[in-house]
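Researcher: Let's do a round of design. I'm pasting the structure tokens now; please hold your answer until I've finished.
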């Protein structure tokens, strides 16, 4: 099997690349480096099984050429910032939905029959069932969630038309090595800028689940190896949830920082944010997977990683 990974130089994508390379597979990374980093993939540069295409998924010609001879696409490139959609109504549509259709068209052009897609808990919006199961309806409250839900539907349709195998993963927030965006990053950056006062966007009570990256990668490969449906939809998450205040508390303890806390918001941190994110992972657990790291351990590993390289905050 030969694999192509859109977004393969990003936080999650580069870990998928590592796992595939470890398994001796041929891997093409397709990335425009808008948020991805050469640093995350450069250790594979001299391996003959590895190829890098610096390109945009919006470039249909280059994408079509790059998928020649590919058997399996991990489509992980996206505009992975949930917040910006309220101000900018175009970006999620282009970077999450149009790019997905480009990938699907390139697969069709090249006869590729397998796709894995990185979706999100944001498709459920403010779900009223917790933990939220996969059959809960799409009720996104952000354009990020809305376009991911639409992209899932496009994948479903193409897979049904052409009899492809599809794996759709709905992720909670990932944490761990190579983490470059999210609440831990934001809070640590704020503390660097002002060690005396830590501003939190909400009132500290929102409850979020997270998943340590190595557990997440193991979950993805478990699903690909064991899920038997033609179109496989799986939540990836943790049994635990922490409040924003608890997350901040772990960071402050680890950094031995004692700022005053200032709460800027209410029940959510920004327009479109969700107060309670906790996914039901029983479908995945039945395949024999469960997370090995607690969320607290994952947060500590993320802090260690971010502390190692101060350039990451620039
Ligand atoms: N990190 C999370 O907690 C999380 C949670 C839910 C879903 N996801 C999804 O998982 C995927 C990976 O997220 P991540 O956290 O690794 O983000 P990331 O920003 O680190 O990775 C995205 C990668 O895609 C590349 N990219 C973006 N637009 C592109 C384009 N048009 N053409 C080519 N390359 C492009 C970027 O350069 C980057 O390398 C995304 O689809 C994201 O929406 C992530």
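Researcher: That's everything. Go ahead.
Model: Designed sequence:
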């Amino acid at each position: 099997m030969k694999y192509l990974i859109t977004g393969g130089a990003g936080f999650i994508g580069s870990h998928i690349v590592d796992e595939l390379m470890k398994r001796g597979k041929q891997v093409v990374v397709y990335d425009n480096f808008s948020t991805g980093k050469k640093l995350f993939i450069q250790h594979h540069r001299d391996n003959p099984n590895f190829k890098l295409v610096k390109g945009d998924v919006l470039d249909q010609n280059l994408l079509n050429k790059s998928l020649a001879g590919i058997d399996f696409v991990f489509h992980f490139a996206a505009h992975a910032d949930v917040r910006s959609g309220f101000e900018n109504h175009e970006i999620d549509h282009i970077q999450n939905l149009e790019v997905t259709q480009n990938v699907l068209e390139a697969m069709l052009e090249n006869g590729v029959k397998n796709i894995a897609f990185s979706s999100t808990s944001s498709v459920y919006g403010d779900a009223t069932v917790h933990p939220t199961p996969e059959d809960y309806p799409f009720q996104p409250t952000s354009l990020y969630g809305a376009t991911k839900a639409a992209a899932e539907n496009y994948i479903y349709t193409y897979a049904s038309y052409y009899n492809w195998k599809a794996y759709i993963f709905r992720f909670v927030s990932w944490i761990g090595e190579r983490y470059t965006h999210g609440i831990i990053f934001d809070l640590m950056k704020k503390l660097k800028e002002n060690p005396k006062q830590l501003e939190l966007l909400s009132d500290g009570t929102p409850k979020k689940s997270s998943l340590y990256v190595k557990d997440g990668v193991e979950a993805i490969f478990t699903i690909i190896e064991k899920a038997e449906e033609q179109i496989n939809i799986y939540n990836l998450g943790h049994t635990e949830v922490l409040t924003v205040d608890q997350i901040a508390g772990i960071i402050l303890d680890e950094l031995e920082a004692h700022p005053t806390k200032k709460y800027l918001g209410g029940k959510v941190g920004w327009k479109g944010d969700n107060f309670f994110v906790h996914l039901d992972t029983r479908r995945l657990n039945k395949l024999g997977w469960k997370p090995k790291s607690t969320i607290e351990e994952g947060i500590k590993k993320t802090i260690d990683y971010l502390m190692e390289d101060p350039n990451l905050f620039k």
